[in-house]
Each structure stands twice: as C-alpha cells, then as structure tokens.
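Worked problem 6 (solution included).
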Amino acid sequence: MNIYSKKQRWKLFLFMAALVIIGFSLWYTNTLVHKIAKDERTKVKLWADAIQRKASLVKYTNDLFKKITNEERGQVELWAQGTRELANPDFNSGDVSFIFEVIKNNQTVPVILTDEKGKIISDRNLDSLKQNDSTYLRKQLAEMRAQHEPIEIAIANGQKNYLYYKDSKLFSQLKNVLDDLIKSFISEVAVNSASVPVIFTDSTKQNLVASGNIDSLKLKNKAFLAKTIGIMSSQHTPIEIDLGEQGKDYIFYQDSFILTQLKYYPYIQFLIIGLFLIIAYTLFSTSRSIEQNQVWVGMSKETAHQLGTPLSSLIAWVEYLKLKNLDDEMLLQVEQDIKRLETITERFSKIGSLPILQVENLVEVTEKAIEYIKTRTSKNVQFILLADHKTPVFAAINVPLFEWVIENLCKNAVDSMNGKGSITVAFDDQEKQVFIDITDTGKGIPKSNFKTVFEPGYTTKKRGWGLGLSLVKRIIENYHSGKIIVKHSEPDKGTTFRITLKK
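Solution. The predicted structure is:
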C-alpha cells in the first residue's frame, strides 16, 4: 500500500469520526432544545389556562356587578312606585303597611325627591349630619343627575315629582374592586411569568389595549401590529375575554424569544461547526501546499546545484578529449548527453523561480520532445502527432519546462502500455485557449483516482516515486497558469490527459 492510499484511508477515518462527533453533538443539542422547548410550551400553556380562568373570574364578577346594578335600579323604582301610590289622591287606603315597608327597606341607595322646579322635597340614605346643608344636598343631586336618569312620579293635578338616585356605597366599592381587578388582569397579561410576547386588543382585534415583551414603539405602527397579530394567530388560538359591558377582548401571544432562538440553535451550531471545519481544512491545505512548495524548490535547487559541478567537469573533459583526436562520433554522442544534462539542470533551476514565458509554436516544441522520447523507446510504441505543420499553434510557454511536461506524460504512457501500443497527441486551437490531448492505449486509470494521480507520492510502479505527474501539474498550473486533467480513461483501453493553455 503506497503512502497516498494510507493517507486517503486516514482522511476517510478522520472524516467519519468527525461526522460521528458532529452527529452526536447535534443529536444531543437537539434533544436538549426539544426538552427546553417542551418545558417552555408547558409553561405557556399553564399561563394561558390561568389567564383563561382569571378571565372567567372577571366575567363572573362583571355579571355579578350587572345584577347588583339591576337590583339597585329595581329597588329605587319600587321605592318610587310606593311613593307614587301614596301621592295619588285616588289611592284607596287599605293596608299601606307593605308600601311603607318597601320605602323603609331602602337602606343603601341614596335618593333625593324633587319637584318639577328641582326643589328638594326629601332625601334618604345621605349623610345624616349634612341633611340640612343645602350645598351638600345640591352637590349630591348633581352627582345623581350625572349617574342615572331620574324616575318620574305623577302626583295630583298633573304635577310631577322626580326621584334622583346614585350608586350605593357598597355598589361603588364593588365597582372599584372590579376596575382594579380588570386593571390587574390586563397588567398580569402584559407582564407575564411565561415571558411570551403578548398583545391585548379590543373586540375589533385592531386597537391595542396593552402589550408585553414587545417593542411598544413598533406597535404604534398599524401595519406592524397587524402583521404581528397575524403571526401570533398562526401559532396559537387567541384567548377570548368577555368583560361584560366592555365587550369581548382578545389576547394574542406567541413563542418566547428564547424558544424561537432554541428552534434554530442546532442549525446555527451545525453552520458554525461546518464553517470551522472548512476554515481549518483550508488552512491545513494551504499550509501543506506551502510546505510542498518549499520541498519542491529546495529539492530542485539542490539537484541543479549537485548536477552543476560534475557537468562542468564533463564539459572540460570533452574539450580535453578533443585534443587527443579521439573518435568524433563518440565525442558527438557524449556532447549530446552533456547538453541533455544541461537541459535537465536548467529545468531544475527554474523550479521555484518565476520562468520567462515566450510565444512559441506548440507543434514544433511538442514534436521535438516526442522525437527525444521516441529514440529512447521501444519500436513497438507508435507516436502519432495530429497537427498540420503548415498551421502553427501559438501559446506563451517556457520551452524547457513544457518539453519536460510532454516527456513525463509520454514516459508514463509508455510505462502504462508495458512498451507496446500507441501515443497520440492532438491540438485544438480555440480563440482564447489551446487544448492539447495526449492519449495512450495503456491499462487506464480508475475514475476515483482522476485527481489522485497528480498528488505527490501516488504511483502504481514498484520502484516509482510518484513525482512525475505532480511535477507536470505544478509546471502547467503554477508556471503557465494553465490546467491539466484526466479527460477520459477506461480500464485496459487507455487514458487521455488534457492540457489547457491560455493563448
């Protein structure tokens, strides 16, 4: 197993471990969120039930208050009827004890009897210490006129008296209690223990009575109020409050701010974890890439330096051998090999430094590189160059480095064919870029390894270092701003590499 396969397995293992950790974290968080949300909803439900019960109590108190009002009115009317009967000249005197009993039994409702001109004739259930105080009596009469319509009493000769009355002291106290109860009820709705946003409206569901846990300034905006009420109605059925004479009011409420946050917390957590992993992976990849660059540059510079010394010595020895009149053919071959070594040294020296790019004819440069490989390859390997020499294909390249790319791709192709097959190089000259397809008839590359083959250390050879295609990718992408990919591959049928260069 090569180092890259081990690394891939470790990556997969760590990825699965990360997924398990993230999955467990999200599951546990989600469980807690649901539990807290359930507790929140239970609290809100208890609050809503308590409000509903208190609303029933308010309604009952209001109904009771209405009954007392009706009873006091009836008591006054009965008292007035008795007075009317006694004042009637046609009254048949009989047992009048019942009428006197009715009049006598009014011990709570303050009343004042006046004539048609408003002159006070008599009074009952007023402050006994102030009965002779005309100012006090006139003030009480004014209060009675403001509260209730007088009861008309017809007397002899078409004359009329008027009976004025006001709420009894007990009734007034009960009314204050009811008002306090309603105010307390509204306050309890607005400032609720469940900490939920609440809107209290009148029967129209448009006019705001009170609110709680919502920005009161925003609620002054009718559109915002209507929108908020709509949202609340979709979450919970509004609580209907019957306050008697005041009509039906409505309480709208929605989930608390904390509960709303908890709903989205798992997703936010997942997003944060994902963002952290992406940043960590990016930093790790960048760091690794920088480290690889340093290794490549250091190795290349050192290789060029190491080759430089013996190469200079070989050049000197060739010049010396020429003086000895040795075989010219033999010296020619040695010189060619030395030039080759010089080219290799130049290539290594360019790794790590910005190469100079010049517009060249790709067909000629590629043909030259193929010719070099062809002379050092088995005759069972056929090289096919699909190009019209009359139509040059131009692009900005560094010739020594680009030749190195072609040579590496061709050497890999020869190795994958076991020294027998064909290698085809085709050009596609477009308006803004040039495509170069190099196709062999070798054993192919699995689709899962289309990207892996360019990684340092990846190799299928027993004695390979796995640096050839990695070097090719670096030269094309880093130094020529191009791109190289595995365009197509089938097992036992061959592989096509595509190089893309800008024109």
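Discussion: Residues 3-87 form the longest helix (85 residues).
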